[in-house]
Amino acid sequence: MTPAAHLAPPDSEDAISTADLAKIFRLRWSGREVRAVDGISLKVQRGSTFGLLGPNGAGKTTFVKMLLSAVHPTRGTALIFGRDARDPESRRPIGYLPENHRFPTYFTGAGMLDFYAALSGVEEDRRRKLIPGLLDRVGLDRWGSVRLGKYSKGMLQRLGLAQALIHSPALLVLDEPSDGVDPVGRRHIREILSALEEQGVTIFINSHLLVEVELFCREVAILHKGKVALSGKVKDLTAGKGYRLSASQIPERLQSELRAKASSNAARDGLVDFQFPTREAANEAVDLLRSERCEIESLVPTTSTLEEVFVRTVEK
Amino acid sequence: MIATIALIRDTFREAFARKIFWGLFGLSTVMILFFLFLLKIDIVEGALATVSLFGRTMDRTTDVDRLVSNTYGGIATFLYTWGMALAVFASSGLIPSVLEPGRIELLLSKPLSRTHILLGRYVGNVLVVSSNIAYLVLGVWLIFGYKTGIWGRAFLLSILTTIFIFSVLLSVVVLIGVMFESAALATMTTVGLMIMSPILAQTNLMMRLLSSEWSRQLWRGLYYTLPKVYDVGKMTLDVIRNGSFDSYMPVWSSAIFGTVVLSAALVLFAKRDF
What we know:
The structure holds 2 protein chains of 2 kinds. Helix content of chain A is about 35%, strand content about 30%. By secondary structure, chain A is of the alpha/beta class. In chain A, the strands form 3 sheets. Chain A has a 6-stranded mixed β-sheet with strand order 6-7-8-3-9-10, with helices on both faces. Chain A starts with 13 loop residues before the first strand and ends with a helix. The N terminus of chain A is likely disordered. Chain B is mainly alpha-helical. Chain B is about 75% helix and about 5% strand. Chain B is built from 11 helices and 3 strands. Chain B has a 3-stranded antiparallel β-sheet. In chain B, strand 1 and strand 2 form a beta hairpin. In chain B, helix 2 packs parallel to helix 5, helix 6 runs antiparallel to helix 10 and helix 6 packs parallel to helix 11. Chain B is flat, with a radius of gyration of 21 Å. The chains are: A alpha/beta, B mainly alpha. At the A-B interface, helix 2 of A face helix 1 and helix 4 of B.
């Protein structure tokens, strides 16, 4: 496969950039409002691997659908490589694998790839050359002429990944990519994604499988009740045992001082989280914050897995 | 252009898979074979000598021109009513199927406008039915021309008028499909319009029968607004039999209806969240 970055405009630093993005559904009869996504501002740098996490109903899928313009935002903006997500051309560099996809069963594997590649504007000659290689890459080389009705769920998932890759996208948006795939298949998918990462493809994964995200993504954001509850680098968020101190209204000078002392830090929802390796360091930080009359939100001991970070975040 | 062709080909592929295309094709073929093998016409010096059907000779004599034009008229009417109803019934599932969750998101993630996606599907659907209509009419026309030596070109007009009215009715199928994602409701609404058309076309009679002015206005409003399936059919029949027709009004008013309804479907589709 050719390196994909050529599909993206060269001057955009962020693959995804949203500002105050919100979607409020109004129930038809009662008129009640449901804030599925409530003012999300997020940046995903070009070439990064980003995981979007959150409990059921947190607004992850709605957020992804707004990036693809399948759902219209109530307010805010979404940019894909600097281009307004409402513009169909913004979707040219995107390869998308939806959750619970329903590929028409009248397609064969090769026919399905040919159709979606054509919709992405890939010429027929190029499609003919690309399809056998892609089927081989996802381990379905002998299944190209078989109708999709005969595919298992894991095979459909791998074919869906091939579909997302066929036009050499610069941004991959994958909704539960390992869903229904066996452990060997998962590792295979991870290897494919790692190779793409080396080629500079931005990978955005929406998943419930925290272990998968922890293994692959460099950065994550945890959504909760339609807002970003926590975001940062995975290595910072899972920076070993210690103490996490959350505070607000911290002057910039003190923030810099605490950042230097902390093993990691992350911003969320007006708060700044500092991870300290020892109890002494955490107490010292508390003293500094109180001397500046900053608001301390919480001080909790931490452990190291993303799952624990996730549970702590959504249970707050 | 690549994407447009892909959308049209996909509609054909789905029509093949759902046996819609082959169902229509099979019925058309049965009708063509009927005229090819079961209808025998003997002509002596330009006049009809015998007509035999299923091996039975009819003793009615008439002139060949009238027989051919009457037969063409009969086929055009059959095609126009039952063929159209079958085509609407067969096509009604092709729009809601694209809107199924898990399928529509993937289509919308491609660099295509929503108008492009829906129009591609609409045109594909029209072409599926058009190819069958053209096959049937041309097949019957060739058989009759060969058997009688009379090549009534006016009959070929029924290809255009049938496709035209189908395109207008399909816009209703698309609108209902986009609004409610229900093939059954789309069929009911469209067939309902077809049934209403010959009733509404009795405008002169109804103007005399209706007692109040508002009911007359309502009748006229409905007649001029809704597609004139009956009137366009009658127009086709007049051209086949007499070579002339009264007015273009049924065509342009139906075209306006189809354009407005299809535009409404495109606007609603563009605004919907999936």
